[in-house]
Amino acid sequence: MSYTKAEEQSIRDNAPVTYETAELLASQFGKTVRSVVSKSVSLKVYQKREQSHSVTKPQKKDTVRAIEKTFGLGEGELQGLTNARGETLNALFKLIAERIS
User: Fold this and answer.
1) DSSP line for 14-27
2) Of 31, 6, 33, which Cα lies nearest the Cα of 17?
3) Is residue 73 one of the residues assigned to a domain?
4) Same domain, yes or no, for 64 and 37?
5) Of 65, 79, 80, 88, which one has the fewest beta carbons inside 10 Å?
6) pLDDT digits (tens, 9 = 90+) for 36-61
7) What is the domain count for the chain?
8) Spatial distance between the Cα atoms of 75 and 79, rounded to a whole number of angstroms
């Protein structure tokens, strides 16, 4: 999509352009939000949205180590379990915790 000089200036005047600003400008210009975002990026005035940080899951090796500790085993004695799926290891660990409690 082509932009007029006035539209480009409007984008610059609204710098830094966020996604929400791009939505407003898109409705004013009669263009898609994606187009306004792309134009803002090319004009170097776009500010990316902050990514939400997901909660980090425990790594499989940590779950295996917790199972080893539960049974008083040395580190690495159940090393083969690290090849199992993470969901399977978590289910196993929950079952063990329920039985021991």
Assistant:
1) TPSB-HHHHHHHHH
2) 33
3) yes
4) no
5) 80
6) 999 999 999 999 988 777 677 778 88
7) 2
8) 8
